[in-house]
Amino acid sequence: MRQCFDVIIIGAGIAGCATALALRQQHPHLSVLLLERGNNTPQPFRIGETLPPQAMALFQQLDLLAQFRLRGDLVSLGNRSAWGSSQLSENLFLYSCYGHGWHIDRASFDSWMAQQAEHAGATILHDATITGAPVYDRQHWHLSIQHNDHATRSIEAPVIVDASGMTAFLSRGQHVNRVSHDKLIGIFRYYQNSDASTGDTGNADGDSYTLVESCPYGWWYSAGLPHGRRVIALMTDSDLARTENLLQEAIWRDALLSTQHTCTRFAHAEPLTSLHIKPAHTQQLERPCGQGWYAVGDAASTFDPLSSLGMYKALRHGLLASYAIRDDLLNKTGAREKYQHILNEEFRHYQHMHRQYYSLEQRFANAPFWQRRQHTAASSDSSRNIYDAVMDNGFP
Ligand SMILES: Cc1cc2nc3c(=O)[nH]c(=O)nc-3n(C[C@H](O)[C@H](O)[C@H](O)COP(=O)(O)OP(=O)(O)OC[C@H]3O[C@@H](n4cnc5c(N)ncnc54)[C@H](O)[C@@H]3O)c2cc1C
């Protein structure tokens, strides 16, 4: 049996769910199917926890703000960073017109987004495997899927959205190149506060801040999470992690102990997990859309976690793609060109801020991690005051 939908979305992460929500809210008659390869049970831990204040404007547009506030995530007041100097400096969200940000339990947040998409009328198939490459006949995409180990079935839609994260599942099949700009990875571990000075929530005062601290291998970040948890991550390049043995727990721990500020965050905390590793390199698809398809979120571009903008971008792309798809379905011209232009400008602006921010750290000029980044910083244009850009867009 063949089933037809108006839009099929690959991946029910934040970008996929935001796209589905925006589509269904604007056009309740559209049938939207989300295919998710993961099962319906939330993972206990998922990386990527700081939601910057400006994300609230997108929640409002998606009609999620009131519901989001009921979740009880941890308030994030801003960032403290030892970057370019061993002294801590503060960037408070207090000065943002959107108020404070949030440290969220990412696994529960992703499930919550999926629930919101379902409430808005989208259908989600968890445990879905796309068997074979999707085929486009210039009018419809044809996919074969297996769901919950049942027999393979065929589905089709005129529009498909690639929201599969960094793997960019669909775009790869379309032979659209992914351009990687570095080899950044995150090596991280979760902790549970054991400090008697924490309040009822299990969180200490400092948990309301993200702490960023540069070091010769890269930089550390740590943040409080709801329910007295913390995450501590070392961001470095994959080849340096291997040569310096930073993937070994004892070596990672020694590196953590050699920090001036970050090490204080695990003094009163018990490890909850072993080390996890995730790619975190900056990457961009050669083009984020084509006839009948759009890429959103990390499938279209990934940002360095230093920016804390990955989730914001995923929400924003969902909204932007919904407008472009509406125009496509109405046979209006120019939707793809507009979408591509906006995403290219977004990436260009991100790269500019990224170079500027890395160029502020000059203490480790002889270390390979920093040499690689100083090279690009020297060639960046400095038309905009870096501090304005940082305040506007959330770099710590
Ligand atoms: C170390 C680290 C720290 C970070 N910290 C932050 C932070 O503090 N703040 C922030 O905003 N961002 C942060 N990020 C980035 C942020 O997590 C991502 O930008 C965000 O998850 C992107 O959302 P997405 O929906 O595009 O992709 P994803 O979250 O990757 O979701 C993709 C979904 O697609 C599914 N999928 C993949 N392939 C298929 C397939 N073939 N079929 C069906 N389903 C498929 C996956 O199972 C997944 O559910 C961090 C990232 C890293 C690595």
Task: Please characterize this protein's 3D structure.
With about 400 residues, the chain is of the alpha+beta class. It is about 30% helix and about 25% strand. The longest helix has 25 residues, at about 335-360. The protein is globular, with a radius of gyration of 21 Å. The N and C termini lie far apart (about 50 Å). The site of flavin-adenine dinucleotide (FAD) has 35 residues, from helix 1, strand 10 and helix 8. Flavin-adenine dinucleotide binds near residues 16, 38, 233, 278 and 297.
The CATH topology of the largest domain corresponds to: FAD/NAD(P)-binding domain
CATH architecture level-2 label of the largest domain:
3-Layer(bba) Sandwich
First-residue to last-residue Cα separation: 52 Å
User: How many strands appear in the DSSP assignment?
Assistant: 25
- Which kinds of small molecule does this entry bind, naming each only once? flavin-adenine dinucleotide
Would you identify the CATH H-level superfamily of the largest domain? FAD/NAD(P)-binding domain
| Main beta sheet | 8 strands, mixed
**Count the helices. How many?**
11
Indicate the overall shape.
Answer: globular
Radius of gyration: 21 Å
What's the short story on this structure?
The protein has helices at residues 14-26, 55-61, 65-69, 106-119, 169-173, 238-243, 249-257, 310-329, 335-359, 368-378, 386-393; strands at residues 2-4, 7-10, 32-35, 50-51, 74-76, 78-82, 89-92, 101-103, 123-125, 128-130, 135-136, 141-147, 153-157, 159-162, 178-180, 184-193, 209-215, 218-225, 229-237, 269-271, 276-279, 283-285, 289-290, 293-295, 301-302. The chain is of the alpha+beta class.
